[in-house]
Amino acid sequence: MNKKILDLFQSQDIITLEELKNHLGFSERKVREFLSELRDAGDKNGFQIITVSKRGYFLQIIDDTKYQSYLHQFNNDFQQFIAKKEYRISLILFLLLQNTGFISINQIAEILDVSRSTVINDMNDVKKELKHSELHLESRSHYGIRVSGNEKNIRQMLSRISRKVIENQNVHLEFFEFIEKLDFDLVTDHFISLLNEYNIIMTNNAIESILFHLKILIYRILQKNYINEIKINKSLIDIKIFAITKELLSFIENQYSIQITNDEIDLVASQIFGKASSEMVPLDQKMKLAKSIREALIKVDKDFDTNFSEDTVLKENLLLHLHPLIMRVTYGLTLSDSLVKSVSVQYMNAFLVAMRFIDYHEELNEYQLSRDEIGYLALHFATHIERENQAKMQSIKKIVFIADSMKSSTLLIKTKIQSYFPLANIMVIPHMSVAKHDMEEIELIISTEPVCLEKGQNKVVVIHQNLDEKDFHKIKNEIIFSGEQYTNNVLGLQDLFYEDLFWVVKNGDYLDLITKMCERMVDKGYAKQGFKDSVLEREKRFSTVYDTGIASPHSLQPMGNIDSVGIVLLEKPTVFHDKEVKCIFVINVKKGHLLLHQEISDFLIKLMNDSNKIKQLELINTYQKLRVFLKEFL
């Protein structure tokens, strides 16, 4: 990404923040993070990113030799990656499987930036890989090559190969931030106008659901991520549904300067048809579906100690989602969406809940749903969790900020805190006067230095002098994790790693290693009986091994007696489902600690995005060194 930004700077004299957002497809906050990273890198690599007030930014090269060396590093990294034959073959397979039409050898060579002869030499290995999945290459003169065979086998292989390619790109899921800032009023008005024009009846909740999916569509396309859809029999969908879909998406194309493919049009048409046709579902069937959702959610709540079954909005959204979902799988329509591929990583807890919900829903359980269908379903649970977190944040009304009131920075920090908690009353008190104040009724205490209080010590969050994003993350965690389910202090991630759950092994089979760790966790009282079988069942359904060499196996439901994470570090990597495994984190949390599970997954995402830290982790050979690593990293 840094290379792409530098290329943009070199293409024009001054570039605005808005132009950077549009070119990169990221939020303003994320773009600013990229610029900050470049500024830090520039100090050592002969360049500066200069800010021009009210105009934008420009690149100033101080030392061209150092700068060219820095650019060369990016090119070398890519070339070394492509030079690895195994990865190159995966990339070729990905291009072939993702492309429904023909693609030429020259096009593949151009995309990979390798010679035509290199691609031709790789084709024998490509054919062998395809043969293992009972697929073959079809060649046509003047057109190129494409994959042929059973569509189910293509989908399964694409799912496996795409994880090697797409997840390795470390795409961040900033979906909720994106939709929060997206101005969608004109699209909403136009959609409602079209519904009236075509005399299509749809409830407000159904309209909101369609708008939600349209936001996903825009988010994906802005990041150059496209779906690859299996065609459904279009005779099932009313012709006026296609008409309204094309008009609506044409409006969106003009509004957001994007191009929408025919596959995307088919998908949106099927969603609109599903929502519109759900209005025609007999009331008794709709009530039956609503009842099955409620019963499944009650069972999920019992497993996770949550309150999903009490969320009316969630139940209505699931009702609207399940009807077209069941229709899709009934008629053989499955989808692959590069956005939801990251849901299982970044919203691990929501993905886990969605899997459990499917287990408890009798009708859904009859179908073999793809990882991507589960990911779409998980977005509803992720939204519920985000909504609950926001409600907790907004419920804070009494805050004490302990700082030197004479410092000019204190007012700035207070203003920042007020922006996070607009409804709260914030009182600033100096460190010297802390003992004079009663903190019993205070809901949150923020301090720039460690403090010792007789009452309210568990509500204290110590921040830096400038209140950065990490500080806000700490504050947010304090609020989210300080519910009745938890003890006084926020559970620290460092406290989840125990010496008797830390192993360094020379090598071994992946499933054997996690089996032994699970047995150890049960024998030592960390986890309940059945934990091992549940973890292995989770791996059987969808592997938790990622392309960074990190695996995060966990049970299908909370089975912990003691919140803990077992670590297995391998001196020689093992292979599971064609992926190298170097570091295994066996996650074990207690019932009711679903948010802690998410905090662990956030830690793993941060680790997976830092190749240097992964290398450091691989060199650790004692528990003491692990503790030092965790302290520095967290």
UniProtKB/TrEMBL annotation:
Residues 494-633 form the PTS EIIA type-2 domain. Residues 178-282, 284-391 form the PRD domain. SUPFAM superfamilies: Phoshotransferase/anion transport protein, PTS-regulatory domain, PRD, Winged helix' DNA-binding domain. InterPro entries: BglG_antiterminators, HTH_11, PRD, PRD_sf, PTrfase/Anion_transptr, PTS_EIIA_type-2_dom, WH-like_DNA-bd_sf, WH_DNA-bd_sf. Pfam families: HTH_11, PRD, PTS_EIIA_2. CDD domains: PTS_IIB. Gene3D superfamilies: Mannitol-specific EII, Chain A, PRD domain, Winged helix-like DNA-binding domain superfamily/Winged helix DNA-binding domain. GO terms for biological process: regulation of DNA-templated transcription. The keyword NADP does not apply. Keywords: Repeat. This is Uncharacterized protein. It comes from Coprobacillus cateniformis.
